[in-house]
Amino acid sequence: MFQFVKAPRSILLAALLTTSLSAVASNTILLPDIGTTAASTLTIDKEIQYGDMYMRMMRASRPIINDPVLSEYIQDLGHKLVANADGVKTPFNFFLIQNYDINAFALFGGNIGVHSGLFLHAKTESELASVLAHEIAHVTQRHLARTLEDQAKKNPATMAALIGSLLLVVAAPEAGMAALHTTTAVSMQGMLNHTRSNEKEADRIGIATLAKAGFNPQAMPHFFGRLAEKYRYTTTLPPMLLSHPLPESRITDSRMRADNYSTVRLPPSERYLLAKSRIVARNLGFSQTSALNWFNTELKKAPANQRKELNYGKGLVYLDNGQYTKAQQLLMPLLTAEPNNLFYIDAMTDIDLYQKHYDKAITRLEKALQYQPENTVLQLNLANVLLDAKRYKHSLNILTRYTYQHSNDTNGWALLAQNYAKQNQRAGELAAMGELAALRAQWKLAISNYTQAAQQAPLGSLDQARYDARLDQLRIQQAQFEALRSSF
């Protein structure tokens, strides 16, 4: 449905955002009653506020993959694990970063990021789930907060400085790294020791969550062991091994803990393989030739029951490079065999859009929505097709409802802004663009857009009243955001 610019390979400083700041973990799942000076500051509510702040900064400065199909997949997988985790005190949000390097990280407030490169190295869905389960455990055990609290016992100013450095890392990575190193220079060795303890705790709790959710608990030691072996003799480690060190003792410990559970033999996950193919085609920075070579190589050695997912990825490569006939030859048989598969529906919708077969796409999407009326992928696809077909009113109705229900999804606001622009409704366009700016912590721009929208709306109209009310809300949000920043 949406096309994305392929980003160059770059390293997200997840080591500074996760377990490089970990504290000593207890050997039980229950957390101690800390009761430090920091505890009164880092309440769960405060963590959620920090998480919201970091996510707004991330949207402005990081190549987040705003692909509805992939977003739905990673959210579904993550929340399946959360539903089987203990000690969940925050909402969870899972998102993908376009980055070739292997990594995953947890921010405050249950926000967990996954590098697209991780899909290239995880052989099964259970292996990917094991990484998410590990990060979920970091959140439920409040490892980052407990680290800051531990540091605050020694120096009350340290916690504020660390939180400020974390924010700076999100906004300006190089400056943030320098600030963080300065803040933690005195206790770096102690922090490393705490990291090892927390990593083992996150492994232990993550394996329990993995097993409870129905995944193979052996997937965690298998994946970690394979990574450690691959990079054993290299001096350049992937970010995951910098932020999540893998000494032999940790791998052995995770293997022993996984042995306490029955091995689960699962068939290959179709959705995982489709997501992996989609990422290889669109989100690893491969050229058309490199991507096709990868798929052709994998097709030669893949078992028969895993070739359709690879052909799907190959079809996407052709689609993204304007070779619609070749794409359709690969994708249409897949959709015919599985007419309700969202990966295939989305791809064929793209082909219909490029060929201006609007009625065909609309009929397919509306039929699918009868079975999944609240599905975000289908709603956005339909709104996008209707917009391209100049059926603005129908598209506007879908997007107005969608943005109300999914106010943090930039896709909805971007399409809504396009809809208003095509109808020459400048006030509505400015308001939608204002929401996009707010989601990126660009408060001045958001307020400016809404101010202009209110000025362009008819005097005394419902729209003007709505824009004025939203202006008041944005000013309050801006003040709260700045208050959080000024607190450190």
UniProtKB/TrEMBL annotation:
Q: What is its EC number?
A: 3.4.-.-
Q: Which superkingdom, per the lineage?
A: Bacteria
- Give the main EC class: hydrolase
Subcellular location per UniProt equals:
Periplasm
Q: Which UniProt keywords apply?
A: Hydrolase, Metal-binding, Metalloprotease, Periplasm, Protease, Signal, TPR repeat, Zinc
Task: Please report the stretch or stretches of sequence annotated as the Peptidase M48 domain.
Answer: 71-253
Query: Please, one GO biological process term?
Result: proteolysis involved in protein catabolic process
The record, for Pfam families, names: Peptidase_M48, TPR_19
Q: Which Gene3D superfamilies match?
A: Metalloproteases ('zincins'), catalytic domain (3.30.2010.10), Tetratricopeptide repeat domain (1.25.40.10)
Q: Which residues form the active site?
A: E135, D203 (proton donor)
Q: How is the cofactor bound?
A: Binds 1 zinc ion per subunit.
Q: Where are the TPR repeats?
A: 308-341
Tagged with keyword Metal-binding: yes
User: Which amino acid positions bind Zn(2+), per UniProt?
Assistant: H134, H138, E199
The entry's function note states: Functions as both a chaperone and a metalloprotease. Maintains the integrity of the outer membrane by promoting either the assembly or the elimination of outer membrane proteins, depending on their folding state.
Tell me what this protein is called: Putative beta-barrel assembly-enhancing protease
Q: Gene encoding this polypeptide?
A: yfgC
